UniProtKB/TrEMBL annotation:
<keyword id="KW-0627">Porphyrin biosynthesis</keyword>
<dbReference type="Pfam" id="PF13241">
    <property type="entry name" value="NAD_binding_7"/>
</dbReference>
<dbReference type="GO" id="GO:0032259">
    <property type="term" value="P:methylation"/>
</dbReference>
<feature type="modified residue" description="Phosphoserine">
    <location>
        <position position="128"/>
    </location>
</feature>
<dbReference type="GO" id="GO:0051266">
    <property type="term" value="F:sirohydrochlorin ferrochelatase activity"/>
</dbReference>
<feature type="binding site">
    <location>
        <begin position="43"/>
        <end position="44"/>
    </location>
    <ligand>
        <name>NAD(+)</name>
    </ligand>
</feature>
<comment type="similarity">
    <text>In the N-terminal section; belongs to the precorrin-2 dehydrogenase / sirohydrochlorin ferrochelatase family.</text>
</comment>
<dbReference type="InterPro" id="IPR003043">
    <property type="entry name" value="Uropor_MeTrfase_CS"/>
</dbReference>
<dbReference type="InterPro" id="IPR019478">
    <property type="entry name" value="Sirohaem_synthase_dimer_dom"/>
</dbReference>
<feature type="domain" description="Siroheme synthase central">
    <location>
        <begin position="124"/>
        <end position="144"/>
    </location>
</feature>
<dbReference type="GO" id="GO:0009236">
    <property type="term" value="P:cobalamin biosynthetic process"/>
</dbReference>
<dbReference type="InterPro" id="IPR000878">
    <property type="entry name" value="4pyrrol_Mease"/>
</dbReference>
<keyword id="KW-0456">Lyase</keyword>
<feature type="region of interest" description="Precorrin-2 dehydrogenase / sirohydrochlorin ferrochelatase">
    <location>
        <begin position="1"/>
        <end position="204"/>
    </location>
</feature>
<keyword id="KW-0949">S-adenosyl-L-methionine</keyword>
<dbReference type="Pfam" id="PF00590">
    <property type="entry name" value="TP_methylase"/>
</dbReference>
<dbReference type="GO" id="GO:0019354">
    <property type="term" value="P:siroheme biosynthetic process"/>
</dbReference>
Length: 459
């Protein structure tokens, strides 16, 4: 072990930063956050230092560094842009047995600063011993994504309950069991994330009332929007849920790369639907969600795009509401947004489209007055599930006097490596649709012309 990792209590303890530039500012900010009694010495300071001084958060000394400034300091950071000065600081600190960090020079420092993920009071620190700072940063980014923001609040809540738990459970083993149930409770963490006080209280009551060995935790269901395909378009919250789920119920629109992010030991249930070929009827999907939640599992219903946009999300929740199952919904990037962006087509444009309509080609045929509303100028039309209805869309819009030359685009497998985009004119829409396969989105409107100059994503 080249470095000994510790977390220091610096509140009210004198610390010194030498340097008044931007790097020094970053170090000073951390020390201020840790509550240190901070002195900064430098020839000049950034405006941030001056405002900290005004707010009485730090003390500034505007002059050259001299060794005795280190006397009585707990920690010193040398952060000037002058190597000789940094060296002097380090040697002076060493002589006084005071820990000293020299920025960008781990070999000459008696402590180095890790990459941190701050979910106070939970704190994760990563170090490569100064050998591969970029790797440490990449690891930090990975952990940053997988550690939910509410982790700190959950730890605070645990801290506030320590005495109560001690009083309630006399044996160490009982207390340990309690805390295991506390941190793995299917709803508590989510309720803390949502800051839903009644749900938090309900979960706590359940935890305190429960006999450790006989409890079946209450399950929950989260509808998660998986986005149109590119796993990078999944939200952080969506990712956290699919990594915690016991069961993931998904369909055909959820891409393989997104499924690879699901926790390895989670049960996966495919309820794939294809146009006109419902593999699992909707009522059965609803039942599946209910049954698994009733068994105490954390269920994620993973849906393509956004669950509430042509996703039957509300129908799937209805049965859960009826049975008082805890649920939440995580929105996703809907196909219209994802596919148009990856095709270089802005859905609105100040000059060409002041509104945008999302229309489903599935289900009951759109009625005549509706077509009249659709065939207006300065509006973008986005048809979901419209491929087989392309002849109807073409004929109906033309019948409402929409210009036959109106630009159209069909985007197949949008945002995925096999994305295919065909463009043309409204009068040829039905013909263009024959070249495409589901899932595909049809966009009608002047904005399609922007693809020529704005396309950026290619397979
Ligand atoms: N809830 C989803 C839509 C479900 S309806 C959402 O918000 O995106 C299914 C239709 O969405 C498909 O028929 C197709 O029109 C469209 N769609 C979904 N993903 C797509 C993709 N990657 N590429 C093109 N169209 C897509």
């Amino acid at each position: 072990m080249d470095y000994f990792p510790i977390f220091c209590q610096l509140a009210q303890k004198p610390c010194l930063v030498v340097g008044g530039g931007e790097i020094a500012e970053r170090k000073a900010r951390l020390l201020i956050d840790a509550g240190a009694q901070l002195t900064v010495v430098a020839l000049s300071f950034t405006p941030q230092f001056l405002s900290w001084q005004q707010a009485q958060k730090i003390r500034l000394i505007q002059r050259a560094f001299t060794d005795e400034l280190i006397n009585h300091q707990w920690l010193v950071i040398a952060a000037t842009n002058n190597d000789a000065v940094n060296q002097q600081v380090y040697q002076a600190a060493n002589a006084r047995q005071t820990f000293c960090n020299v920025v960008d020079s781990p070999q000459q420092a008696s402590f180095i600063m890790p990459s941190i993920i701050d979910r106070s009071p939970i704190m994760v620190a990563i170090s490569s011993g100064g050998k591969a700072p970029v790797l440490a940063r990449i690891l930090r980014e990975k952990l940053e994504v997988s550690l939910p923001q509410h982790l700190g609040r959950l730890a605070e809540l645990a801290g506030s309950l320590r005495d109560t738990v001690k009083a309630r459970f006399s044996r160490m083993s009982q207390r340990r069991q309690f805390w295991e149930r506390f941190f793995t409770h299917p709803n508590l963490a989510q309720s803390v994330a949502d800051q839903h006080q009644p749900h938090i209280q309900a979960s706590l009551n359940q935890l305190f009332d429960a006999q450790p060995s006989t409890t079946t935790p209450q399950g929950s269901v989260v509808l998660v929007g998986a986005g149109p395909g590119d796993p990078g378009l999944l939200t952080l919250k969506g990712l956290q849920h699919i990594q915690q789920a016991d069961v993931v119920i998904y369909d055909r629109l959820v891409s393989e790369p997104v499924m690879q992010l699901v926790r390895r030991d989670a049960e996966r249930i495919f309820v794939g639907k294809r146009a006109g070929d419902h593999c699992v009827p909707q009522t059965q999907i609803n039942q599946l969600l209910l049954q698994h939640a009733q068994q105490g599992k954390r269920v994620v219903r993973l849906k393509g795009g956004d669950p509430f946009i042509f996703g039957r999300g509300a129908e799937e929740l209805a049965l859960l509401v009826q049975h008082q199952i805890n649920f939440s919904v995580v929105p996703g990037i809907t196909a219209a947004s994802g596919c148009s962006t990856y095709a270089g087509i802005p859905l609105t444009h100040r000059d060409h489209a002041q509104s945008v309509r999302f229309i489903t080609g599935h289900g009951k045929d759109i009625t005549l007055p509706e077509w009249r509303c659709l065939a207006v100028k300065n509006q973008t039309l986005v048809f979901y599930m419209g491929l087989t209805k392309a002849p109807l869309i073409e004929a109906s819009l033309l019948a409402q006097n929409m210009a036959p030359t109106t630009p159209v685009a069909i985007i197949e497998n949008g945002t995925l490596p096999n994305q295919k985009v065909v463009t043309g004119e409204l009068q040829h829409l039905a013909h263009l649709a024959q070249q495409c396969h589901s899932p595909a989105l049809i966009i009608v409107g002047e904005v399609v012309n922007y693809r020529a100059s704005l396309h950026w994503f290619s397979s």
